[in-house]
Design brief:
Length: about 240
Amino acid sequence: MLMLGGAGADNPRLPSPRQFSAAIGQALTNGSFRWYAGATSLVWMTYFGFVSSSTTILQDLMGQSPVAYGALMAVPALGYLSGSMLVKRSSDASRAVVRGLGPGAVGVAGALVLAALGVTQRPVPVVVAMAVTFIGVGATIPFTQAGLLGLELDYPGVAAGLFFFIQMAGGAAFSALVRMLGLATVPAYLAVTVIPQIVVTVMVLGGERPPSRNDIMYIIGPLWRVGLLRAVIGACRHSGH
């Protein structure tokens, strides 16, 4: 393996300022790039929004010690890892991301129900709900990264840099927005942080991009039959009053 030479780049020279600008413009005018970048940015908003607010939620509002906080935050991390591995180990990323978003929708429903009913005195239900939500987050990120790699762009490296900038900037901006809102209760934090994940679920299950509609019905049908989507809608309506 050490004797193999490096792979040749499609464009071995650094792009000129004009080429760099053109590459940015090409990416931003590509509908698939915007979709993938938007999806990964939205799920990162939910992930980073919760993580950056977690000390406020678990320690300040719920009175957990630093040791307990560390143990509790391992639970959402496991959810993220599970969703990520679900897609990375699958031969069909489009179907795998739908399977990941199914449990993610269950987690969102659980978080909204907790928020609507005000059942947030104990930390375990909160972190479990977010862990299940993060299965959808973890599944979406590698799916969008794989989609990015499949795009025909003149300078894939420039597009990839823009892609990750949009993701990180979106998460940071959302986290700042959450701070600006001055939320004072755990239900408020839960309701706000899952909103971007709801949007991504609608985007993917809505079929604007892969997965196919057959794959969508594979998960959305059972979800509707057992009432999970109805629970999400009902909790959203209830929390709005």
